[in-house]
């Protein structure tokens, strides 16, 4: 329980509920996150030939297990397929200034991938924008190894 | 190839303002005065601690305020072996459901100063409060419960609650 006001009839306190779950990745997603530490995007090829990123452990249509032989590298560049503007970033957001959450179809992939795009203002965002990753200075094996995406020069 | 990444931490965080309402606010202000307040149901006469302002069984407001004692009976317990950032007790420790004398429902706290294999249903305990100058409107003003040294309470006296 945080600070408690003592004025007024009813009290009010700031509560924080946080579960720091640690999730095991398994043999497929392990390759995706390890790839991020090497500045590579690892996706996988589904039974119908489509490529998804992050890689799938099971085919979403046939439900067949997808092995490591299906892994394939995509990106690093991509195209924005849709986006939304975050005018007031929260404390856990990847950027401390206004930015866009975007679905980005990485080159070679058939399904989009969610990440932040850092542009100067909302008017600079558009569907079809070509973007590239800005890698974090010190990779740790997390989605935050991609600091954000930015417009291609 | 880099060292494989075997796991990731995915925190789920919720930050919010909690308003306990009038009845529980009075309870918390009582705690800051070293006093444990409950409310009695006018129909079934059960004393709710902490009070929520109504009796869920009779669906009537509970207006009569009663002070309960800071001694009580352990009605059930659990040994906690998993750490939590906001819990400062040394692991393992015993979380208890304690029926305070004068209360009609038990509430949760921690018992200390007793070997874990001696924590039991019926154990008589009393609250250990923080220093008077540290009293505040939070349940943390009760540091923990400790054995009171009285003989165990008979099963019949708390069977409804265990």
Count the beta strands of chain B: 11
CATH class of the largest domain in chain B: Mainly Beta
Cα-atom radius of gyration of chain B: 19 Å
- Strand elements of chain A, count: 9
Report the sheet with the most strands of chain A, covering strand number, pairing sense and barrel closure: 5 strands, antiparallel
Number of helices of chain A: 1
> How many domains, in number, for the residues of chain A?
1
Helical fraction of chain B equals under 10%
Overall shape of chain B: it is: globular
- How big a fraction of the residues of chain B is strand? 35-45%
Protein chains sharing the most extensive interface: A-B, 31 and 33 residues
Structural class of chain B: mainly beta
Q: What spatial form of chain A do the alpha-carbon principal axes imply? A: globular
Give the quaternary arrangement of the chains: heterodimer
Poorly predicted parts of chain A: 1-6
Average pLDDT level of chain A: 92
User: How many helix segments of chain B?
Assistant: 1
CATH architectural group of the largest domain in chain B: Beta Barrel
Widest beta sheet: strand line-up of chain B: 9-8-7-10-11
Helix-strand string of chain B:
EHEEEEEEEEEE
**Overall helicity of chain A:** under 10%
Overview of this protein structure:
The complex is a heterodimer of chains A (153) and B (162). Chain A is mainly beta and 153 residues long. Chain A has one domain. In chain A, 8% of the residues lie in helices and 37% in strands. Chain A has one helix and nine strands. Chain A has a five-stranded antiparallel sheet, with no helix packed on it. In chain A, strands 3-2-4 form a three-stranded antiparallel sheet, covered by helices on one side. The longest helix of chain A is centred in the first third of the chain and has 12 residues. Chain B has two domains: 50 residues, no CATH class; 93 residues, OB fold (Dihydrolipoamide Acetyltransferase, E2P) (Beta Barrel), CATH 2.40.50. The longest helix of chain B has 11 residues. Chain B has 162 residues and is mainly beta. Chain B has a five-stranded antiparallel sheet, with no helix packed on it. Chain B contains one helix and eleven strands; from the N terminus they run βαββββββββββ. In chain B, a hairpin with a 4-residue loop joins β4 and β5.
